[in-house]
Input
Amino acid sequence: DIQMTQSPSALSASVGDRVTITCRASQSIRSFLNWYQQKPGKAPKLLIYAASSLQSGVPSRFSGSGSGTDFTLTISSLQPEDFATYYCQQTYSNPLFGPGTKVDIK
Amino acid sequence: QVQLQESGPGLVKPSQTLSLTCTVSGVSMNSGDYYWSWVRQAPGEGLEWIGYIHNSGNTDYNPSLKSPVIISIDTSSNLFSLRLTSVTAADTAVYYCARVFTSDLAYKWFDFWGQGILVTVSS
Output
């Protein structure tokens, strides 16, 4: 079975910071990797699909990269509304979410 | 605009069946190459995929789930449903329904979500 890990599990950052979150798969998942943002009490929101494609309506400060086993979500300049938990998800096999990375205010 | 809305009881007794419905609006479930999925989130925990159904009726389920699962679809009423039998306290969670878009290269992503419904398993 494919396992997904994310690092860090939590980070503190300031508005304007560049933030990078890493997701790693236990075996190659090619580019079958999505990223979601979830705020407390809300449903997840799709940010990036197929590793690097920006979902319609998502600000361009969000970007994704990687293929195979190592992937990155980057927020180029953190905004107040970006404080949330971020999940990666592989769909190479049965969908599986990573454990999440919580981004909070420094 | 595609919208999904979960409905069902918020409290289920242990060993009984959890039944939820997701009503879809803004798109016909008969059209396109979509899967329709259930995802849950236990309190304070991460996201867990439960399973999905294609509009052809084909299903896939998370093999790690302990409680038996059935997902069904009614395209004439534009809704799909979840049944989780013999539930325990471990099935207490917010349950989300979601649309799964499938690209021509077989990529899948969950693009529209319901707001979620909290289901508590307790006597």
About this structure: Chain B is about 0% helix and 55% strand. The first strand of chain B starts at residue 3 and ends at 7. Chain B touches chain A at residues 37, 39, 46-49, 52, 60, 62-63, 96, 98, 101, 103, 105, 107-111, 113-116 (CB under 8 Å).
